[in-house]
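Amino Acid Chain and Its Fold in Token Form
===========================================
What this section holds: a protein sequence and its matching fold, both as plain text.
Structure line: whole-number tokens from a learned vocabulary of local backbone shapes, matched to residues.
Purpose: to set a sequence beside its fold so the mapping can be learned.
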Amino acid sequence: MITYNSTAKGRLPSFGSSLFIGVFLFFLSTGFTLALPASTDFDLVKDRVVAEYLASEVNEEAIEELLTSQNPDGTWPGINYQDVSRTGFEHYLHTGNMVTLAKAYRQPDSKYKGSPKVKQAVSNALAHWVENDYFCDNWWYNQIGTPNNLVAVMLLIGDELPEKLVQAAQPIIGRAHLNASGARPSGDRIKIAGILAKNLLFLEEKEKFEAVLKVIEGEIKFSTGSRGLQRDFSFHHRVDRVNNTSSYGLGYADAFVEWLVYTADTRYAFSSDKVAILVDYYLDGISKNLAFGKYLEAGAKNRSIARPGALHGLDAKTPRKLLQATDYRKADLEEIVKIREEGIQNVSLSYGKYFWQTEFFTFQRPDYFTSVRMYSTRNDNMEVPYNSEGLKNHHRGDGTNHLSITGEEYFDIFPVMDFQKIPGATILQKERLPDPDQIQKPGYTDFVGAVTDDLYGSVAFDFISPHDPLKAKKSWFFFDKEYVCLGTGIESKGKQAVFTTLNQLLLQGEVYAKVGQETKILERGKHEFKDLDWIYHDRVGYFMLAPQEVELSFGEVTGNWTTINQQTRAPQEDVSKDVFSLWVNHGNNVREGNYAYLILPNAGLEETKAYQFDDQIEVLSNTSALQAVKHKQLLQVQANFYQAGKLKLGNGLELTMDGPGLLLVHLDGQNIVKMAVADPSRKLSKMHFQVNGKVDLKSDKISINWDAESWVSEITVKLPEGEFAGSSVIL
């Protein structure tokens, strides 16, 4: 029998007691380092792993139900033990029940602690499993899901189970090994290595454990261009370069943080440079893919939107663990903890962040969050609908622009969503979407990107649809209180209309419209406008900056999860929700179509009525050559040049670009006081432009040739190359 000898030399007999668990959990929650009497580091790590399992409370009613309902052969009623398909495999409930029972058996405060009846139930369940060795068509369960649950059972109760049973479980747990097919350099490799490390703790294999810990630490690295962590702190799970930061990237971070805490202040502790990368990734990657650093955001999600509850708020467990292990960027981590525990009412976050390796832009202000998702020749548009999830995601990367005030605007809207009216996207309205196997496509253009000075930013998307005969040039310009959305060069073929959707979200409260001089509350249903000034709904004002045909529909919509998720566990019943949809109708066979609108987030109705966009915003250009906006109060110009051209900045100041590129210019009268530039195409090593005035900007990336006779500054900016190509240069 493989034993866990709590009285072995160098160990503390009290480590299995309620006193130890209580003390450990106290220090875990407060963030203090736990100082213990002499013990081997190996044993200390093992005890920390067990203590983490026991941190959750035992539901005594659930335990009693598991005990009374278990069949004599160790199975439970209600679980389909025949279906081992990719979309079935309810067997995970069986192994999960085993973990639940093992926790109750080991939990010091549980009335089931040491219960022979519980131990027998675990033994019966494990015996059934090893006898049948259920193997799923989805590799994940075989190499991660099942081994993860079984190793938890081993660490919690394995030393008290029959020796033959424990030995029979080892080959099943052993499918989590570093050469497994799923152990690719991404989040799954770390999960598998973590399962292996826990099993080595159980087996008391110290040398092998140390070797695996070095593998885990070694995976905290940048893998730009391949699977794993990208240099911009986004995460790619596959070689399609689709954004997986809010899915696999979360598991990637959590797996590291888990071992960071387990090994703290031991010989296995991670080096400071690895810890810094991990913290930076959590703050600048994961947290900036979330609305307010808390809510999973629709624009960053892939096929998982087809699961109920996909857009929930995250808890503070992981950032608290990071605070327990390091002081690096302590204040930033503490702010994320505060937001997640106390709410978003007093958020001070403000940033503009472009993930240039992932074609994803996020913009945060204290009272709103928004994002833009795109793709290019460098990145595919969307994740494949693996395991029959996300079956209508064809257009969810087409310049999508989601907006969050509370974080709950799109919560479980997806079974009733019109997937040809995605917020921000310009889409040909087909009779039906293509088959799901046609969702993932590469982009057709390379002029896709953003410029940011880390606080403000503009986004440019030279869009050609991989699904339809449709193209457009789309830009977004982000400021403190509002942002502007411009589209031009819209062309399509065929009888189907083209829509650009401003938003589609859950309906909350009244809908107001101003048409001409009249402001009125609208009735539920369909509305069409030709001379609309603005629409107001759920603390957001939507302002039309140019004449355009606008359509609005709001009211109850009925749908079903099975239209986007055909897994056997998907809810089968119909769902009805109130939905708000607002879009520009460009008509069919569009030639040189355009749109221009402004979004005023987190505004009251009276604030919306009083808002005069002409006092704030000037659209300088909306052509296929140049899209540009000036903010009059911020004294800021954001310009997206698709080709060489000139732009009047104001006060007689003119800028001439020698080629394409993105510019963000801060002005003080006739002086340029700050600037950021970027090359979305990533073809240039330098950017050249001229200004009819003297420019005095400081940076080792810039050279300025002032010609006093012609009164022109010739400016050359050295652009980032390699894995930083596409990022901004701030001058």
User: Anything to note?
Assistant: The CA atoms of residues 30 and 324 lie 8 Å apart. Residues 1-38 have pLDDT under 50 and may be disordered. The longest strand covers residues 574-585.
